[in-house]
Amino acid sequence: AYNVGLTVDIAVPFVFAGAVGAARVASVRMGRVKLVEHESVSGKYPGGHTLARHINIAPEALIARLARRPKLIAASTFISVKEAEKYVSVTLKANRADIMNWMKYASPGSRLSVYHNFSESVGYGVLRGSTDVYQCHRVGVVIEFTRYNGKPYFILSAFPAR
Questions:
Q1: Beta strand 14-16 pairing with 22-24
Q2: Where are the beta strands (DSSP E) in the chain?
Q3: Residue from 126, 154, 150, 124 nearest 142 by CA
Q4: Within 10 Å of residue 158's Cβ, how many Cβ atoms?
Q5: Which of 1, 131, 161 is nearest to 66 (CA)?
Q6: Is the per-residue pLDDT at 4 higher than 70?
Q7: Where are the alpha helices (DSSP H) in the chain?
Q8: Number of neighbouring beta carbons within 10 Å of residue 146
């Protein structure tokens, strides 16, 4: 089996102790992220949008996305689902300690962004105001602490970055 990295299948059991609050324990299992388990079924919240917005998108479509979304400064894409899952898994594994620490104190709905640099290209992107395509060597992953699809969290977005 081809396993790379970490499936941030972070299990967060809640122990409510009346007015004292909640104690959280996080554990991380090794394996590969399956982005489909985090993707929004309806295309609306809750659930992520990595497969819908960051996989195998043509440069012209990235430019069109920037035109539709004025707050975005760049748009990017992974080449394939397989590549995305590989790079997201490695990124989560590289940030394991930060993710576990965040999970201890995260309140429902809070988000954490983590990044990891790679020596090889992980995808490509386009900056607002440009039609030039650039290669990305960094991956960003945004995790939201909201119960979704049987997990206490979901990957809101994962994307190639500069």
A1: antiparallel
A2: 6-11, 14-16, 22-24, 27-30, 74-77, 111-117, 123-127, 133-136, 138-144, 154-161
A3: 154
A4: 29
A5: 131
A6: no
A7: 50-53, 59-68, 81-94, 96-105
A8: 18
DSSP-based three-state secondary structure for 127: strand
Burial of 68 (0-12, 13-18, 19+ CB in 10 A): exposed
pTM of the model: 0.81
pLDDT of residue 151: 86
Domain boundaries, the chain: 6-161
Q: What is residue 35's DSSP assignment? A: G
Other Cβ atoms closer than 10 A to 96: 17
Q: How many CB atoms lie within 10 A of CB 2?
A: 6
d(CA 159, CA 151): 21
What does the pLDDT look like over 63-82, one tens digit per residue? Answer: 999 999 999 999 999 999 99
Determine the Cα–Cα distance for residues 89 and 107; give it in Å rounded to an integer.
24
- The pLDDT, as a whole number, for residue 43 is 74
- The three-state secondary structure class of 140 is strand
